[in-house]
């Protein structure tokens, strides 16, 4: 279904909580290439896995390490 929609010129934006390498495998397998993707729970928006990064929303390592000290 996705392949047919993309062939008609309709932009398909694949969004997943997965990392770019995993998203590339999925989009390639279903025939969606050269489209925008949203990866890692929305923290990374790019033209295609391993393409131009349009937005990257990450926290600094030091903040992540500090948060690890406080269990839920």
Question: Care to describe what's here?
Answer:
With 72 residues, the chain is of the alpha+beta class. It has a single domain (2-68), classed as Rossmann fold, CATH 3.40.50.1000. The protein has three helices and four strands. It has helices at 2-7, 20-29, 61-68; strands at 14-15, 37-39, 44-46, 53-56.
Give short descriptive properties of this protein:
72 residues, alpha+beta, Rossmann fold, four-stranded mixed sheet, 3 helices, elongated
Write a concise synopsis of the structure shown.
With 72 residues, the protein is an alpha+beta fold. The longest helix is centred in the middle third of the chain and has 10 residues. The mean pLDDT is 84.
What is the topological layout?
Blueprint: H1 2-7, E1 14-15, H2 20-29, E2 37-39, E3 44-46, E4 53-56, H3 61-68
Instruction: Give me the count of strands.
Output: 4
Poorly predicted regions are none
**Biggest sheet descriptor:** 4 strands, mixed
State the separation between the terminal residues, measured CA to CA. Answer: 41 Å
How large is the count of helical segments? 3
Give me the oligomer status: single chain
**Relevant CATH superfamily:** HAD superfamily/HAD-like
Structural class: alpha+beta
Order of helices and strands: HEHEEEH
Tell me the count of domains.
Answer: 1
CATH class group: Alpha Beta
